[in-house]
Write a structure and sequence with these properties.
Length: 496
């Protein structure tokens, strides 16, 4: 239900519920990261340190396309409530964990329900707002997500030092209860004619079976395993084969496919998926390797290097709401996408030129450029896709954009980690230690490769065909069925 069909009070509560759900799913990751050294020490589980994050990330990425489809089928309200309730239970289990394997399992469960929230939060905005307000609110929400990356680590440190690392998880419970109350009050319940028999179970099984080994294989390559190692090859090849099976199920067998691949015939969906992937690729690579640039090349302390990520996050946080408003004001908004990807590429090229004597001005300038680019690209990708597809598929389309953002993280770290290991390995074979100049050269190649990769997103943005930001209320007739004229118009848009 959109703005024309909901009260101002209901819209306010729905927005609060969505914002709290986003807070749970986004702040949680950065807060937990700050507490992980203490957790590993208390639970004597340093060997499983990385898998606490891996289990969450893999589960969240895998469930996003599934949850988006379920939201379209059964309505946003029940799916959000299930996601919130499950996330609270998983958070409590994380806080109560007595061993590291228990924590890894509980974080995987939290990732499943966190993915459910991420798949439906931005779709809910399409349900309750008109296009102009929807695009602006998405900018606000992405800005809030950027803010969470800034406040998350210090907040996690404060909670861990003053209470206990367990409260990093327990604090989610009161926030989640408030979110559940707001969703119950504000989000309208839309009766659905779908039943559990309509769920594409074959698609769910083959998608999960294909994605999980690929994501784990990519994680292993970023953790020091060679791409040609037997375990990595087995995971990647096996996963790829199962994804082929998933495609065949979706295109030849499924009556109600989990991922309607016909969506990608739309210029807007395909271009924005590429933009979403490579903007997230750049964000992950920057967030992971810039602290190493500061510490290993510029000699900045570990404590101070963490704060130097703030320029990128502030750029994202401040630019996202502005970008949302600009999209509704500019009929030729493709220029925003081109500018965003160009800014990211420029920032990465600047980072590739940083050396031991460069000072902090260059990397800070680069971080601002990258943050501004991401702050435009993220809300733009979501808004354009939501206006390009039929209302009955808006959850699938929105979750696809979110999926490509999330999958970019492990892909980025795997590729860039391999480049880093290769360059340092060559230096070691030549008898050189990991000095500041050697590390600067390796990171220079890494950021240059990242810039080249993001250049694919820049080229893709040039081919975007602008369409009007459509009011989602026009996607259905008063009787609740798709309006024939609107469907014909959407078909023409997709073919364009």
């Amino acid at each position: 239900m959109n703005q024309t069909g909901s009260s101002t009070r209901g819209q306010l509560f729905a927005t609060i519920g969505a914002l709290l759900a986003l807070a749970l799913a986004s702040i949680d990751v950065s807060v937990v990261g700050a507490a992980m050294p203490r957790i590993a020490d208390d639970l004597n589980g340093l060997s499983l340190y990385a898998w606490v994050g891996v289990s969450y990330a893999v589960a969240a990425a895998v469930v996003v396309p599934i949850a988006g489809k379920l939201g379209d089928m059964f309505g946003r309200k029940p799916v959000l409530l299930v996601g919130l309730a499950g996330f609270l239970v998983a958070s409590w289990l994380c806080g109560a964990a007595q061993t590291m394997p228990q924590l890894v399992g509980a974080r995987g469960l939290a990732g499943l329900f966190g993915g459910v929230l991420m798949a439906n939060v931005f779709t809910l905005l399409a349900d309750i707002y008109t296009p102009e307000r929807r695009t602006q609110m998405q900018g606000v929400f992405f800005g809030f997500s950027g803010l969470s990356m800034v406040i998350g680590p210090p907040l996690g440190g404060v909670i861990t030092d003053n209470w206990s690392w367990r409260w990093v998880f327990y604090v989610n419970v009161p926030i989640g209860l408030l979110a559940i109350a707001a969703v119950l009050i504000g989000v309208p319940f839309v009766r659905s004619g779908a039943s559990w028999r309509d769920i594409d179970f074959a698609g769910v099984v083959t998608l999960v079976a294909g994605l999980v080994p690929i994501l784990i294989g990519l994680t292993l390559t970023g953790d020091g395993h060679a791409w040609t190692s037997p375990e990595v090859l087995a995971l990647l090849i096996g996963g790829a084969a199962l994804l082929v099976a998933f495609y065949l199920v979706e295109t030849r067998v499924a009556k109600n496919p989990l991922v309607p691949f016909a969506l990608f015939r739309s210029n807007q969906v395909s271009v924005m998926a590429v933009v979403a992937f490579f903007s997230a690729f750049a964000m992950m690579g920057t967030a992971f390797y810039v602290p190493l640039l500061y510490q290993g090349v510029l000699g900045v302390s570990a404590t101070h290097s963490g704060t130097l990520l703030i320029p990128m996050m502030l750029g994202l946080m401040l630019m996202a709401p502005i970008a949302g408003k600009a999209m509704t004001a500019l009929p030729r908004y493709r220029v925003l996408g081109v500018f965003a990807m160009a800014a990211i590429v420029a920032g990465l090229l600047i980072l590739s030129a940083v050396g031991p004597g460069s000072g902090q001005g260059l990397p800070i300038t680069a971080m601002v450029l990258i943050g501004v680019g991401i702050g435009i690209a993220f809300p733009m990708a979501t808004a354009v896709v939501q206006s390009a597809i039929p209302m009955e598929q808006v959850g699938v389309g929105t979750s696809q954009i979110q999926f490509w953002r999330m999958i970019a993280g492990p892909v980025s770290l795997a590729i860039l980690g391999s480049i880093m290991s290769s360059r340092l390995g060559v230096a070691a074979q030549g008898g050189e230690g990991v000095s500041a100049p050697v590390l600067a050269d390796a990171l220079g190649d890494l950021f240059l490769a990242c810039a080249i990769a993001v250049g694919i997103g820049l080229v893709a943005s040039l081919f975007l065909k602008e369409i009007p930001l459509r009011d989602m209320s026009m996607g259905k007739s008063p009787g609740g069925k798709p309006d024939q004229r609107t469907s014909q118009q959407q078909d023409r848009t997709a073919r364009a």
